[in-house]
């Protein structure tokens, strides 16, 4: 078992990269949709932002090449080099995007697509590094860094960013996020470049990953869970704006929700997984998310509940519920990944998540624009409820595995 102080130091540096990745994610998924809606863009155009998930959905195609470069047959681990190049690309994109402005939207989306490719590639290297570096810790610390880092980064990119944009303008907001990303990635670079040369015989590949039953089962569970949790996720921000709130309020609520309820949900999820197992946590999170979507549907459709009150409540509670469930899901993913090619195995799970998130986000934007928020949130609620029996069946075997771990 590695020394606790050493483990915490490693987790902290890895967590910095996860936070940095989520900063650009928060800017993309919460900040930009809110800014564009405030400028009057239609929901179907805003829904195009979901296409930026494409690199995350397809990164399994280049994950083996990244892993083979990261882990050469003889020599040092090259994770630091990959993270450095990716961070530089993202910083450059943010600075150029700041000069262009949030509109016209297509050039901004093109630049953010470059940033998405860079962060997706960095994620392959960081996940692989984490799986190997934390192999003796049963991955609890690494999973906390992943989920907690994601919500902290989302709070910065989706909360602080909007507040800066509202007070100081678009250029100031993007420049501030570029500086934050640079600072967050630096400790990882110092850690990764201290690695020692090694000899490796295993060749990372997709075939080796898909040959393992743990990976195949995990892909099915990921698909079901994403459908239940993320179908309408990208519409909470526009729904909040259309309920009469402004960008600063969206930024404050998004940031506070991620920092408080998101982190609380992640910590609570970890405790509940240890006590009750991943199966019950996953199903409980789906039921809670369905209840939230049902409340939003009742307010947005027939108007049985006040929209102005439901919109902020839905945003913060949905954040907590997603964090609660994804601790269980990503903890399983890390445990199922082979340390010799952790970047490939974990990437496959994430690609299933990203692909379905993209498709669901685009479809949700089109449905909301043409049929209203009430219809799309009702459909999302029904989909969540429909996945419960399948998730129960798919996680039965994995929960038994967790109980005997």
Topology:
Layout: H1 4-38, H2 43-46, H3 54-58, H4 63-70, E1 74-75, H5 79-100, H6 105-133, H7 140-168, H8 170-192, E2 198-199, H9 206-210, H10 213-230, H11 236-242, H12 247-276, H13 278-300, H14 307-336, H15 342-371, H16 373-403
Antiparallel strand pairs: 1-2
InterPro entries: AmpG_permease/AT-1 (IPR004752), MFS_trans_sf (IPR036259)
Transmembrane segments: 46-62, 82-103, 109-135, 147-165, 171-193, 219-241, 247-269, 281-301, 307-331, 343-367, 373-394
Membrane topology: Multi-pass membrane protein
Commentary on this structure:
- InterPro entries: AmpG_permease/AT-1, MFS_trans_sf.
- It is found in: Membrane.
- It is a multi-pass membrane protein.
- With 405 residues, the chain is mainly α.
- The protein is 81% helix and 1% strand.
- It is built from 16 helices and two strands.
- A two-stranded antiparallel sheet has the order 1-2.
- The radius of gyration is 20 Å and the shape is globular.
- The relative contact order is 0.17.
Which secondary-structure class do the elements indicate? mainly alpha
Number of helices: 16
Number of strands: 2
CATH architecture: Up-down Bundle
Q: Give the overall shape.
A: globular
**Structural domain tally:** 1
Proportion of β residues?
under 5%
Low-confidence segments: 401-405
Largest sheet, spatial ordering of strands: 1-2
Which percent bin holds the helix content? over 70%
| CATH H-tier superfamily | MFS general substrate transporter like domains
SSE order: HHHHEHHHHEHHHHHHHH
Q: Would you give the CATH topology?
A: Growth Hormone, Chain: A
Return the CATH class.
Mainly Alpha
The residue-averaged pLDDT reads 83
| Alpha carbon gyration radius | 20 Å
Distance between the termini: 16 Å
InterPro entries: AmpG_permease/AT-1, MFS_trans_sf
Organism: Salipiger mucosus DSM 16094
Protein name: AmpG permease
Keywords: Membrane, Transmembrane, Transmembrane helix, Transport
């Amino acid at each position: 078992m590695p020394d606790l102080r050493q483990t915490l130091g490693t987790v902290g540096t890895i967590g910095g990269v996860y936070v940095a990745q989520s900063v650009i994610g928060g800017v993309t998924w919460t900040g930009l949709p809110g800014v564009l809606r405030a400028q009057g863009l239609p929901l179907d155009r805003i829904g195009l932002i979901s296409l930026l998930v494409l690199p995350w959905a397809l990164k399994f195609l280049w994950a083996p090449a990244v892993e083979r470069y990261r882990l050469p047959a003889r020599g040092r681990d090259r994770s630091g080099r990959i993270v450095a190049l990716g961070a530089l690309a993202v910083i450059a994109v943010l600075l150029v995007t700041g000069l262009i402005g949030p509109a016209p939207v297509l050039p901004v989306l093109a630049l953010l697509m470059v940033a998405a490719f860079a962060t997706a590639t960095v994620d392959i290297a960081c996940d692989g590094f984490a799986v190997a570096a934390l192999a003796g810790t049963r991955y609890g610390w690494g999973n906390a860094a992943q989920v907690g880092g994601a919500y902290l980064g989302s709070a910065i990119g989706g909360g602080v960013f909007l507040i800066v944009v509202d007070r100081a303008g678009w250029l100031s907001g993007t420049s501030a996020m570029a500086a934050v990303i640079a600072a967050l990635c630096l400790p990882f670079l110092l850690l990764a470049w201290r690695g020692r040369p090694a000899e490796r015989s295993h060749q990372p590949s997709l075939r080796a990953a898909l040959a393992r039953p743990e990976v195949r089962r995990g892909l099915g569970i990921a698909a079901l869970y994403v459908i239940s949790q993320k179908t309408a996720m990208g519409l909470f921000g526009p729904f909040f704006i259309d309920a009469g709130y402004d960008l600063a309020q969206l930024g404050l609520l998004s940031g506070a929700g991620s920092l408080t309820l998101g982190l609380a949900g992640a910590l609570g999820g970890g405790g509940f997984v240890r006590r009750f197992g991943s199966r019950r946590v996953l199903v409980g999170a789906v039921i809670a998310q369905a209840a939230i979507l049902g409340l939003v549907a009742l307010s947005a459709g027939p108007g049985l509940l006040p929209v102005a009150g439901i919109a902020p409540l839905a945003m913060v509670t949905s954040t907590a519920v997603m964090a609660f469930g994804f601790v269980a899901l990503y903890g399983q993913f890390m445990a199922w990944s082979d340390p010799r090619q952790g970047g490939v195995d974990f990437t496959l799970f994430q690609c299933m998540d990203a692909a379905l998130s993209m498709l669901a986000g685009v479809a949700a934007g089109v449905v909301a624009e043409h049929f209203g928020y009430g219809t799309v949130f009702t459909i999302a609620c029904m989909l969540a409820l429909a996945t419960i029996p399948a998730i129960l069946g798919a996680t039965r075997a994995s929960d038994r595995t967790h109980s005997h771990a």
